[in-house]
Amino acid sequence: MTRAADLAHLRPGPGPRGHRRLLAGPPALGLDAHQRAHGTLPYQNGAGAFIGAVEASGLTGRGGAGFPTWRKLAAVHKGRKPVVIANGAESEPASRKDRTLLAEAPHLVLDGLQLAAEAVGAKQAYLYARAESTLATALDERRAAAWDRVPVTMLIAPDDFVAGEESAVIAAVEGRPALPRDKPELVVANGVHGYATLVQNVETLAHLALIARHGPRWFREQGTEEDTGTFLATVSGCVVTPGVYEFPYGVPLGATLHAAGGPTDVVQAVLVGGFHGAWVPPDGDLPVTRRTLRPFGAAPGAGLIIALPDHACGLASSSAVADYLAGQSAGQCGPCRLGLPHIAELLRRLAMGERSSGLAAEIDRVAASVTGRGACHHPDGTTRFVRSALRAFAHEVALHLNGGCRARGAR
After folding, report:
1. Contact 270, 235 (CB under 8 A)
2. C-alpha distance across the termini of the chain, in Å
């Protein structure tokens, strides 16, 4: 079974970071430095006006789903005893953007958490993230300075792929194992202990803090009409300086690789959106937006951009990811317990060179039977990735079925 450690070649290095908005300038770790850089926390004194400003900004969630942020705020505001949670679990092995943000600008995230709590009328807030000393220090500083109106409780997120899923986050807050569950109702109506709950990615919250300070028009200065603002991206794979960078939506795909020092090899494909994303062609002019990525089954997602070198076998790389994802399921439903391991095994056989002409069709058939039937979206994300691999590396499939392989030399 593939572990996260076995996927190191797909993970980012530390790399330099170029940021314009969220992480501009040196890290603002201390509360005093944060206040000098951004000013005091601009409480909005009323949910309606701020939710309206968020709607005008066009901000969407930066955790992967890309749902309009204002809609979640408005839904929770209408619910019973609202609760807000900052989700910084970032259990995607290829991502470092949330960790970077929490390490370098924790107060910007915590400001956004306070604004979200005020907007929905919450009396309790949670920070759900990996164990980081900077976060504990930041929370202590804010308590000492009486900076926050709503108390914040920090919870440590486990190192599991599904631990960042919305219902798994709620389970952790309730003191249960961080595993996804069936959701007969949306968590915005029935979340923590049955109360209306806002689970928001930490990058989204940081954008809220800046929108409150600078306004929706400022936020729209970058991005596109449909995908507004900027996003943090973890760029890795065959690039000179892997790391976390900030881009406006609509940035050409080639420009994201150039920001990371450029490719170290000819790029044969780019994985966009992470391990639940999809492979896209190495078209340097392809804009990174939901609309332009949709034909490939991809989306900007949580800002993952991984360049695959020309000498690598796309099937072998995809097989390693599929094997990892199959081992990271909660194991609570048939698609995860049976479907994903079966798909991973079939793809492994194809990648290893088994010359069975029906393998690719069987992978696609099993993937179709799994899609839409899981207790959470883990099976859907995994099958989306696997099916994109079959499309992107169709030539490699043909090579393997004829006893060849790009990595070993074509036949």
Report:
1. no
2. 30
Six-digit token string for 46: 């009323």
Strand duo 278-280 + 197-201: pairing: unpaired
Domain-by-domain residue ranges, the chain?
22-219, 230-309, 314-401
CATH of domain 22-219: 3.40.50.11540
What is the pLDDT of the chain when averaged over all its residues? Answer: 88
User: Nearest 5 degrees, angle CA 83-CA 106-CA 25?
Assistant: 145
pLDDT digits (tens, 9 = 90+) for 147-183: 999 999 999 999 888 888 899 999 999 999 998 887 6
Query: In angstroms, what CA-CA distances link 347 with 60, 118, 278, 343, 359?
Result: 34, 48, 16, 6, 8
CATH code linked to domain 314-401: 1.20.1440.230
3-state secondary structure of 36: helix
Contact 134, 29 (CB under 8 A): yes
> What's the CATH number for 230-309?
3.10.20.600
Residues contacting residue 111 through CB under 8 Å, at least 6 positions apart? 38, 41, 205, 206, 208, 209, 212
What would the pLDDT profile of 55-75 be if each residue is shown by its tens digit? 999 999 998 778 899 999 999
CA 69, 12, 177: angle at the middle one, nearest 5?
55
**What's the rounded mean pLDDT across residues 292-319?**
94
